[in-house]
Specification:
Layout lengths: L2 E6 L22 E7 L14 H12 L5 E3 L12 H14 L1 H5 L4 E3 L9 H11 L9 E5 L2 E5 L3 E2 L2 E2 L4 H13 L4 E5 L19 H13 L4 E4 L5 E6 L2 E6 L17 E8 L2 E8 L2
Parallel strand pairs: 1-14, 2-3, 3-4, 6-9, 9-10, 10-12
Antiparallel strand pairs: 2-13, 5-6, 7-8, 11-12, 13-14
């Protein structure tokens, strides 16, 4: 029986209340943990550096020894990168912050955010660095233990805020192969936005959004992780669970009560039981 548990843990309680799990996957392939973070872009052109809070998020996430890390997108400013040099500089700054992740050999999977598609140059650099090397696409899937992770792209050229065409056809076939696993989906724009981006998320094309949601429900997707809105929000809409985890450093939206605080997620998988731990950051 699948179980949903969302626990909020403060950084100061890591030693006792939110202890790191042993790195790797248990012998039966069922016990492991992963991290979800994202929307850590700089504030604006006057504050172009990666946010201080994102350094802290990366530091604490690595301590948890996850088998992989998912990033919900928008990790650079993007709209000011009109040449390759500027685009490279912004992504280099991001990779400087995430160096501890690579040092621990933790796989980092990033879905493309709208800020990585503002200019032709920034889009090219994102594609060259973060595409799947085997398929040459920005949508792909990976497995860990008894779980299947699907990275989708809501920012393909001429297909923004929509999953359609080749990507949707690929998704249908991929989900068929993962029917007996826990399934987690990552994309940037929420199917059901809250607080902000109420008209430019996946609901911009409601019929296509509903088609996507129905497909997720057909294959019993455990959770859809998104960003775009810089808040924490958990919702269940017509049986589909979604977490907006958009608070890893970008300017926040909404009040604290509405989820407007910095955070990331630590997800613990133990067979069919899945615990979602919301980690507020300071």
């Amino acid at each position: 029986m699948k179980r949903l548990l969302i626990i909020a843990c403060l950084f100061t309680t890591f030693v006792s209340g939110c202890q790191a799990l042993p790195k790797g996957i248990s012998k039966n392939g069922e016990l492991f943990n992963f991290v979800v973070m994202g929307d850590n872009r700089p504030a604006n052109i006057f504050r172009p550096e990666q946010p201080y809070i994102y350094y802290k998020v990366v530091e604490y996430a690595v301590r948890l020894n996850p088998v992989l890390i998912l990033n919900t997108g928008d990790m650079i400013l993007g709209y000011d990168a009109h040449d390759k040099k500027k685009a490279e500089e912004e992504f280099n700054d991001f990779e400087k912050v995430t160096a501890p992740i690579r040092a621990k050999n933790i796989p980092l999977y990033i879905t493309m955010g709208n800020h990585s598609g503002y200019t032709k140059e920034v889009r090219k650099v994102f594609h060259s660095r973060y595409k799947n090397k085997e398929t040459d696409t920005l949508y792909y899937s990976v497995d860990a233990g008894n779980s299947h992770f699907i990275v989708l792209c809501s920012e393909l050229e001429n297909e923004k805020a929509i999953i359609t065409g080749k990507q949707f056809a690929w998704l249908k076939e991929d989900l068929k192969k993962a029917a007996d696993k826990n399934i987690f989906v990552l994309l940037h724009r929420p199917l059901y936005p809250k607080i902000k981006h109420l008209t430019d998320s996946m609901n911009k094309f409601p019929e296509k959004r509903d088609e996507l949601a129905d497909l997720f429900k057909k294959y019993n997707v455990n959770m859809v992780f998104t960003g775009h809105v810089h808040v924490y929000n958990y919702s269940v809409t017509n049986g589909l669970s979604q977490i907006i985890a958009g608070g890893s450093g970008a300017p926040l939206a909404g009040t604290i009560e509405e989820g407007g605080f910095n955070h990331f997620f630590n997800v613990i998988v133990n067979g069919n039981d899945v615990d979602y731990r919301l980690i507020p950051s300071e």
